[in-house]
Structure formats: structure tokens, C-alpha cells
Amino acid sequence: MKKTLLFLTFLGALAYAQTQTLITGKVGDEKGLPLPGANVTLKDTYDGASCDTAGRFTFKTDEKGNQTLVVSFIGYQPAEFVVDLNGKTLSLQVQLKEQQGEIREVVISAGAFETGDLKRPLVLKPMDIATTPSAMGDIYGALTTLPGAQIVGSDGGLYVRGGEGYETKTFIDGMLVASPYSPKMPDLPTRSRFSPMLFTGTAFSTGGYSAEYGQALSSAINLSTVGMADRNQTNVSLMTVGASASHTQKWNNTSLTGSVDYYDMYPYYSLVKQRMEWHRAPYQLSGNFMFRQKTGKYGLLKIFGYTSLNRSSLFYNYQGDTAKPSLIRLQDDNYYLNAIYTNQLGEKWRLKTGLAFSHDITKTGIDNDLLKDNANAISQRLTLTNDITDHISLKFGEELNRNAFSRGYFQYDSSFTWNTDFRLMDYAIYVEPEVRIRSKLVFRIGFRAEYLDLMHEWDPVPRISLAYKIKDYSQVSLAFGMFRQRAENQYLVYNHNLQSEKATHLILNYQYERDNMIFRIELYRKWYTQLVKYTLEYNPDPNSYSNAGKGYAQGVDIFLRDSRSVKNLDYWLSYSFIDTRRDYRNFGRELVPSFISPHTYSAVIKYFIEKTRTFLGLTAMHASGKMYYNPFITDYAGTKTRAYNDVSANITQVFPLWKSYVAVYTNLSNILGFSNVYGYHYSATPDAGGEYTRYPILPQSKRFFILGAFFVMQ
Q: What is the dihedral of CA 590, 596, 597, 603, to 10 degrees?
């Protein structure tokens, strides 16, 4: 594991230790009559309650500072109030105005997880991610427990609905992140570069997403950074894998947060035997800052910067033979800067503009040979939103992405040196009106057009989605759209004329949501065209690459989350079935990709014991066997690995410490010791009997254990 951000889990658990605010009150109509069943929630959270028969409500929240309280009831106009949450009891009297003929608004949910009256697919909060045992504080690890995602333990990225990891794109405040994952060694997974605690929420779309997002073939993840800090605070964490420290300073209209993190797997690997032989266990030094500045009444400038230095080396034999393994050395330096400005322009116009910069240098040494990749990306975006009427809104904007990539290779034995590079500009415009017909029907028509100058490619990518309210708490949604993504750097660097890969999404969704409980079932079909094919990977001959690939994916995803039935208990269950085939890369025909499990199940259970301030978490995951193929036999039919199983658990105990807090955290993965196999490698030559020997791709160890403490000083 090259980057272990597990101190984030302590942050999530520690939220329970903070002084909670008790919110109580009564909701009635204009005549003062109570409204039993009215919903009272804090916007963008799961905190809230329903009114009893007397219209009274009460709930506790761990949120701090100025928050928006939303009060809604069928047949009445919803009301929003800004409340100051400072640990003191808050009592409210709310009157709602009757709205004839109106019911609870419908929201488009096909391909995305919508909650309440939010118009964005908010899925997981930072605490959801930090306290999911199998994720170990990793954003993408937590998203793997949601339907549509595949469990792939030997590679990088998030694999969604038949798509490869690179087909899922990450955005921070709407800005594309060129390199969201830490570097990886062969047969080992990678993790997110970023802490979930840097963000207020993670929006996960498995398809059919807004025209605002481009260059994503299968899935889009939007991470929203935190706003103004509400207090001065210092955090320190100590773990079995490293340490970190951060400080937040707040002024009237300004806040600044800085952190430094160091992770080193050498002490852990020295105590716990690993399957791979490390020459130098992974270690990382990273830091980030967040600057926030209010401008005027509604304006906010947010600047986020991040840098990390990663180093590791191991002895590795691709085919598992008895021959001397190669020494692989990995060195990665990453720098990222993101600036976002938002403001309200008059009563109906909203402005959002941003600029992002990414610089990533990766050096991979194989014995005495060296491969060096240098990637630079600059992104600019401008979005305007206008609420034309109460039923019609319009979003439109433009973006520009400039990418530069170079690859150099040095072969020691022959002193051969090879270098190549490319530069690419991607221009895009998008417009997306949304129309609501009362509260029963809403539809959104999106149009996006992109131009890539390197290959002189222009593509329109229209999208449409709609939702219809069946009953008060249930609805159906439909989404259809075209999506495109330029070929990966590792292919474009050899053939500059490769066209974009394309996918068409069709999604049908049913969703029931009420009082912190949501159930959804979704059917989908995807058609892939112009996928990249090659005869041999890393071949510098441009003619060996083409866009002749194709494929399809279809299936059903089911999801249930409930945090209302049992006090202090939150759980979600998911199931995914997928049928998919592809003819791409060096495939000779359409095959089931080796990262696909037809059936995937997951259960995440979290329980908080208030009396002892103890947080318990349990994750259980199962995935049916994956196909694997002998690459040296062209007509090999393939067979399946054994099924994947994992049960992971964590326990967090929070203690007061003077005017501060300390959380002691323990996490153990695969507690039942399942013997999982991710796939197989084959020897390059047959044995005396003409058989190709296969070697399993295994986890580094059956279990992974973490122990740490997190301190908060205010």
C-alpha cells in the first residue's frame, strides 16, 4: 500500500466526540395547526427528524457553524433557515405556507444518487468514507461498496459498469483532476491522493451525468471542498504507518488550513510478513493547504494546493519463475493547484469559475533501464446558472483543457534512448436547461460540444434525462446520452491520430426515498465504440494502434440505505449484476474483461454507542469469480478465479482530553482470512508437456492491521 491515509478515519469518528447541538421545535401551518410528518433536515447532511403528531421534532447534530435548516411537508412551500450550531440547544417555531396542488418535488436520479430536495448526486459524506472498514480511509475504496463498482484488488482506479479504471474521472469543485491516484507497483492496488476530510461530500455518478462534465467515458466523481472554517484547530495523528499534523486559522472573512503528512510502510512490513519482497517499502511525504476568502455578500474564493513525493522499490518477477527477479524502482512527484470563485449575480444569476494546474513526474526503473513520464495539465472553466422562473433553470458554460505529455526510455545494455511527446488542447461548450412541470415531472436536456486540436476532432455529445413522480416518495427516472474520452496518454504518445473512445448510456431508474431511507433499482445498457486496439503494448510503431475496438455492458444495480429504523445505526446494502464483453487492446475477439465479476454484493454496517463514545463498523463484500486468459494461446476460452470475499471491521473509542479530544482507532481487514486470487500470470514458454505454467496474483498479505490515535486541540 503506497499511500495510507487512515488518519482520516479518525477524523470521521472524532466528529461524534464533538459537542453536539440539540435542535428542537414545532412545525405548523399559517393557522398554527401542527403538521405531523413534516421533515426537518440540515441541508447536505443526513441529520434531521420527522415531526410527531403534535408537529414537534428533536434531533442532535455534529455539524458546526452556520448551516441551512430545511423544513418541508407535502402540499406546503419548503422553508430554509440559516442557523448557528455552537453546541447550545436551539429551539425553533416554523410556519409553512400552503401550496395548492404541489407535492414533494421530483429529482432526476438515473445514474446518480440523489438525496432529498438536492439537485446533485450526493452519495457519501466524509464520515461515510472514513468509517467504512474495507475502505481504510480511501475515497475510491468506499465507493467500491456502492452498486455498479467492481472489486479490483490488483490495479488502480474505480471500475464502473464495465468500464476500466481510467474511464472514471475525478473532479474537484467541477475541475478535472489529471492524476487523482497515487502511483502503483505491478499487481498492487492504488489509492486516492486526497483525504476525504478535505471535502464536504462526494458526488458519484455511474452514468448519464450532466453535460457539464466531459472526458469521462463511464463515471464521474465530483469532490466538493470545504468552505470557510468555523474555528481555530490543531490536529495531530500517530499511527502504525505514519504521522500527520494540521492547523486551521480563522479570521473574520478568511481562513487558512495547512497540513503535513508522512507515511512509511517499512516498520509495518518489518513486523508483518508480506508476499512481495520489498527492496524499500513505500513511503510518502505530502502536504496541502486550503485558503478561503469571502468577497462581498455572496462571493467566495477557494484555493486548494497539494503536493506529494512517493518512493518505493521491490523485487518482482512477472511470471513467477525461479529466475532472478527484476528490481523495480518507483519515484513519483505530484503537484496540484485548484482555485474556484463563486458569486451571486443579482437575484437569479450565479457564477462559478475555476482554474486548475497539475504536474506529475513518474520515474520507473526496471533493473538498470529507466522509463520517465512527465504529465502537465491546465484546466479553465466558467459556468453561469440562471433561475429563469420557479420551473425553468438554465446552466451553460465553457471549458478549456491543455495537456502535455512526454515519455522517455533509456535501455542500459545498449545505451538506447527514445523520447516522444505530444500537446493537446481540448475546447468545450455546454448548455443544459432544466424544466419542471409542477412537481410531477422534470426533464433536463444537455448539449456539449468538444474540439481536440491534435487530431482535428469535433464531436457533439447530446444528453437527456427526465424523472416522473409516481407517489409522494417514489419516482422513475430515465437518462440517455453520448459520452467520449480521448485516448490515454500511453497510446496517444505513440499515435497522435487516435480518435476519442465513445460510449452511449441508457439508464432506467426507480427510487423510493423517505426520512433517511433510500431504495433504488437501476437497469442500464452501454454501447462502446472506437475503443483503442493494439498488437503489442508499448510498441512505438503508430500503425500498431487503432480505434477498431468495441463492446457493450448491461446489467442491474440495487441499493438500500437506512439510518432511521434503529437509533445510531446506519447501514447500506448493494448488489450488482453485469453482462459485458469487449474487443479492445490486444483481444482477438469479444471477451469478458478480466476485471469483471458478474455478481457483486456488499454490506456496510455502522453503529455508534453514545454512552461509551464508541463507533463500530463492519463491511462484508463478495464478488463472483473473474475470467482470466492465457495470452500465449489465441483460442484459449478462459476460466474463472475463485470468488472474492472480505469481512473487515473497525472500532473507534473517543475520550475527552482537557478541552480537546483523542480518538483511538483499530481497523482489521479480511478478519476471516479468506484466500483471495485476483487473476493469473502465465509463463512465456511452455514446459516439457507443452503447458504454460500459471502464477496467481495474490494480495500482499491476507490481512492488514492499523492502530492509531488522533488528537484535536481547539
A: -150
Find out whether 555 and 524 touch, Cβ atoms under 8 Å: yes
584 pLDDT tier (thresholds 50, 70, 90): very high
pTM: 0.84
8-state DSSP, 346: T
Indicate whether 559 pLDDT > 60: yes
Domain ranges of the chain: 7-13+112-713, 14-95
DSSP tag of 544 = G
Q: What pLDDT score was predicted for residue 358?
A: 96
Give pLDDT, residue 108: 55
Report the share of the chain in percent with pLDDT over 70: 91
CA 106 to chain centre: 25
Residue with cell 446489467: 555
Fold of 14-95: Immunoglobulin-like (2.60.40)
Q: Answer for the pair 606, 570: CB distance below 8 angstroms, yes or no.
A: yes
Query: pLDDT tens digit string along 84-95?
Result: 888 888 888 898
Concatenated DSSP letters for 400-429? EEEEEEEEEEEETTTTEEEEEEEEEEEEEE
DSSP letter (8 states) at residue 76: B
Give the Cα separation of 348 and 353 in Å (integer): 17
Q: Which fold has domain 7-13+112-713?
A: Maltoporin; Chain A (2.40.170)
The answer to whether residues 468 and 441 touch, using CB atoms and an 8 Å cutoff, is yes
